[in-house]
Design a protein that fits this description.
The structure is a homodimer. With about 350 residues, the first copy, chain A, is of the alpha/beta class. In chain A, about 25% of the residues lie in helices and about 25% in strands. In chain A, strands 3, 4, 5, 6, 7, 14 and 15 form a 7-stranded mixed β-sheet that branches. Chain A has a 6-stranded parallel β-sheet with strand order 10-9-8-11-12-13, with helices on both faces. In chain A, helix 6 links the parallel strand 11 and strand 12.
Chain lengths: ~350, ~350
């Protein structure tokens, strides 16, 4: 079986803002399979701010190099397999990257469960959903009656964090960019408030003081930067901050951190806890069970923002970093198999 | 009984570096006692970097105002009492401030235990000792074989933190200013290494990478600023940072925080925990018991840096903020009572 592929590789590692020129489209034909390998065709590619962070050098994963396929999670269908654990036609998830077809070690893949729509495995039950679930319930912890602040509230993780906070009885304040997003976060997602960090007539520190006059108990930080700084000033004593990402800071040179570090951390006795979703992999089954249940009960709204075709991947990620997405962004390469 | 007092009040709240002109010496005679009040003469005044932080506005204590007596912990002898809990001649501890004699509510005082020398109640068994003990054992946690980094290693808290780390089997790296302090930290206190952050021929990030090639498990931060930044880059994954103070940042205008906040917190999944000593007051008895025991066994070296006379208090604190002290600084107003 001769399988043609298209894929995006890193043509140049970005030093400033990510641009389409940093990627190069390659075409070719997959080689034959060795023992333990699986040939797949990609159906859905996940787009996550973390993809950009991986280009900054070694993180919790090795450094991405020029010439590497651009990494990202993806759902794919098995076409052929030399790994007895996988059979043609099965659906799998793995860090396959931006490519239409690929040969993967079977050990790097896992099967996708029966929950449908398939897109939910990249959103609600994927990294976004688990990041929201583990980050809010494990890294930060949340209690009924507390005030929860969430940045990137219209994003894939933030939109879920706020809804999970409401489910647990917290008062939820979102931060998002622009009046349309803010209205959507309030009206569709059910946050108590949503503050527009781009509204120059109402700077965030002031808006936050008005929205949370008693202060913030838990801040779920997806952004870092000036929003983290405003949050530090708004935190209550003994407040908790889950550090989930720093989307404001991935795309450019290293910048100083927020004022109030470490002064406000000491004075207010704050806890900041960085985490990534795999730190809580031992609780993934709980996350998937509860998130699927709440979605089925209509208690969680999972917005998906789906672009079409592999060629959309670069501009999709660039747009995500600029905050153009609403909900979980992904790229569809092929319709769901029957 | 007519009791004359001298005291320093805040003449002007500092906006930049603290100077002697920010204080004004007042003299007067104490009024008579109301019910519940105690008249004391001060023997020893504690000098702590936190005193400066209190002048920046409301913190975990109310804002200090112009005209207030400069606050600080102190040990005093009871001269007269209208509180049945206290009798003349007893020794007490309280936030009495920079004054020779004072009238205090009995409820704001507690008796000083039998351990001697008396100075230990402001050092080893005082805020410094308990801050080191609770911060290392509770806020951060330390395990044998881990690498512990401590800033302000020649200071009252840092000098104890490193010794406690050695007692628990950690490898201990200090950071201090100047070769003399560093030699003392290594040779007298027994730290494994001490890095001179003022040594321009060997910038701290480089020196730290060489001293801790496997990275730092626990950083006990007394300084904030560039040392915190260097530590963030040197931390291992899942590392813990106890945020105890920010002496580098008290004395001046608010400045940006360290680079790497929150990016490195996320990528390395660090935990930063701010604390003040009273958060762990329920464990104070344990701290006092163990610290006194270790001192008696000769396992802890408690350096004390004692200035003489109330008039030394302003320059004592100013010098402390500039890192001029070695060990626990205090001001003696009168010899220990027989």
């Amino acid at each position: 079986m001769s399988i043609a592929y298209q894929r995006f590789v890193i043509d140049e590692l970005p030093k400033g803002p990510l641009e389409e020129r940093h990627f190069r489209l390659e075409e070719g034909v997959l080689p034959s399979l060795d023992a333990g390998q699986v040939a797949v065709r990609v159906l859905l590619i996940s787009q996550d701010a973390a993809n950009r962070a991986w280009l900054q050098g070694a993180t919790y994963r090795g450094a991405v190099q020029t010439g590497d396929v651009m990494p990202s999670g993806a759902i794919a269908e098995v076409l052929a397999s030399e790994d007895p654990a996988f059979a043609p036609g099965e659906l799998v998830y793995g860090d396959i990257g931006w490519q239409s077809h690929a040969i993967m070690p079977g050990a790097a893949l896992r099967k996708v469960g029966p929950h449908r729509p398939l897109t939910h495995h990249l959103s609600l039950l994927g990294v976004a959903g688990k990041t929201a679930y583990h980050g809010l319930f494990q890294a930060a912890g949340i209690h009924a009656g507390e005030t929860l602040l969430v940045s990137a509230a219209a994003g894939s993780v933030g939109s879920l964090v706020g809804q999970l906070g409401k489910l647990k009885g917290a008062r939820v304040i979102g931060v998002a960019g622009g009046p349309e997003k803010c209205a959507w976060v309030r009206d569709t997602l059910g946050f108590d408030e949503c503050l527009d960090y781009r509204d120059e007539s109402r700077p965030l520190p002031k808006a936050l003081a008005a929205a949370a006059p008693q202060g913030v108990d838990v801040y779920f930080d997806n952004t870092g930067g000036p929003i983290l700084q405003a949050a530090l000033f708004a935190m209550r004593e003994q407040g908790r901050i889950a550090c989930c990402g720093a989307v404001s800071m991935y795309d450019g040179a290293p910048r100083p951190g927020p004022m109030g570090v470490p002064g406000l951390i000491v004075v207010k006795r704050l806890t900041l806890k960085g985490f990534i979703v795999s730190d809580y992999a031992h609780l993934d089954a709980d996350a998937e069970h509860e998130l699927a249940l709440w979605a089925k009960q209509g208690q969680l709204h999972m917005e998906e923002d789906i672009l079409e075709g592999l060629e959309a991947a670069p501009r999709g990620l660039i747009g995500l970093l600029a905050g153009q997405n609403r909900g979980k962004r992904m790229v569809r390469l092929a319709p769901d198999p029957a």
